[in-house]
Amino acid sequence: MSHTRVRLESIAPRAWEHPADKAASSVLRGIPGLPEFLRQVGSLTSDRSLRLLWLGSSLRATPLQFPHLHAALLEACRVLDVNPVPEVFVAPGLGLNAMAVGFEKPFLVVSAGLLKELSEDELLAVLGHELAHIKAGHMVYRTVLWLLTNLSLTLAQAAEWVQLPLVAALKDWERKSELSCDRAGVLVCQNPAAARRALIRISYPGHSDHIDEAEVLKQAADYDTSPDVLDSLYKFMNVAQLSHPLLVPRVAELERWCRESTYATILAGNYPRLDGSDDPSASVAQDAQEAYNDWKTTLNSSADAGSQLLGKAVTEAERLLGGMLGK
User: Which residue, 12, 158, 216, 217, could crosslink 272 as a Cys pair with Cβ 3.0–4.6 Å?
Assistant: First the structure.
């Protein structure tokens, strides 16, 4: 590896989680018996079957085979304090993709094209992103919630008015979890520009020389600035069924987070730890409050007409409730 990176010993996923992701995850983790139940249901997909598929179709990275990927994985696990180190397979083909697979013993899959396209720091950002899915428990919750949701929809086809909010909420959480893992990726590579570049390269392989990040961020500002409330509805409809955020605002969101104090604070060693010793008062209610405050801040700072209108409505509602409650 080209330079010494800060090791984030015992770092808890709460450190990098997007507030909306953090609140939803805390609620799920706080339900007695639910994590184990979800793992049992998730095991129906068979880790063994999935691993055998990749074991037979893709090459495993080792010190003697794809050694640069193997070394990058060890570095990413060291920085993010992930143990045990998962296996990583290189899928054939020139497509650019990476994913975490499995439940009880998850592993990573990286496409051969991705290895060819990305620099060392960019690869670390991608590996950190996928490792964060594993460390945060997304593997079980995402897949099993998807199964349970689809089962409930099958049993209640007539209740479409119930289905739509449920699916929309799940998809929104999925998108927020991707933003969380983008943050983990930059914490691993510790090179914000490389982490943003990785997102762009994966979407535009072979064209990195023709893409200007300043223009991308300018475009993100244009996207956020919508003069018509109807545009806000269109934005919601455009992403409602997506599992990942749109590229342009996604790059801007990562740039914003790195620019704020949280990123530097974490690298300085101030972050939530797995033993909870630094944050014993952390609770579901606090996570929900943080998510609400972040949402309100986003609304008030947005140039989107719909977000501004909703932000004003939220402020007015708080004022009225405060008056009623004598606050």
Answer: 12
CA contacts within 13 A on the Cβ side of 231 = 14
Residue 2 lies in a domain: no
Cβ(124)–Cβ(73) below 8 Å? no
- pLDDT tens, 6-29? 999 999 998 999 887 876 666 656
Tell which residue, 37, 97, 70, 258, has the closest CA to residue 29: 37
Please compute the mean of the pLDDT values over residues 33-51 and round it to a whole number: 66
Tell me which of 326 and 184 has the higher pLDDT: 184
Q: Total domain count for the chain? A: 1
Q: Compute the distance between CA of residue 166 and CA of residue 107 in angstroms, rounded to an integer.
A: 29
pTM beyond cutoff 0.85: no
Residue 260, SS3 per DSSP: coil
Q: Measuring CA to CA, which residue among 115, 138, 131, 237 is closest to residue 185?
A: 131
Alpha carbon 321 to its chain's center: 34
For 164: left if phi > 0, alpha if psi spans -120 to 50, otherwise beta; the answer is: alpha
Helix axis angle, 213-224 relative to 192-203, nearest 10°?
Answer: 80
Look at 61 and 312; give whichever has higher pLDDT.
Answer: 61
d(CA 156, CA 312): 37
Residue 5 belongs to a domain: no
Establish if 239 belongs to a structural domain.
Answer: yes
Q: Are strands 107-111 and 98-101 parallel, antiparallel or unpaired?
A: antiparallel
* 105 within 8 A of 54, measured Cβ to Cβ: no
Structural domain of residue 200, as residue ranges?
13-325
Q: Is residue 140 part of a domain?
A: yes
**CA–CA separation, 210 vs 239, rounded Å?**
27
Strands (E), the chain: 59-60, 88-91, 98-101, 107-111
Count the alpha carbons within 13 Å of 233 in the hemisphere toward its beta carbon: 3
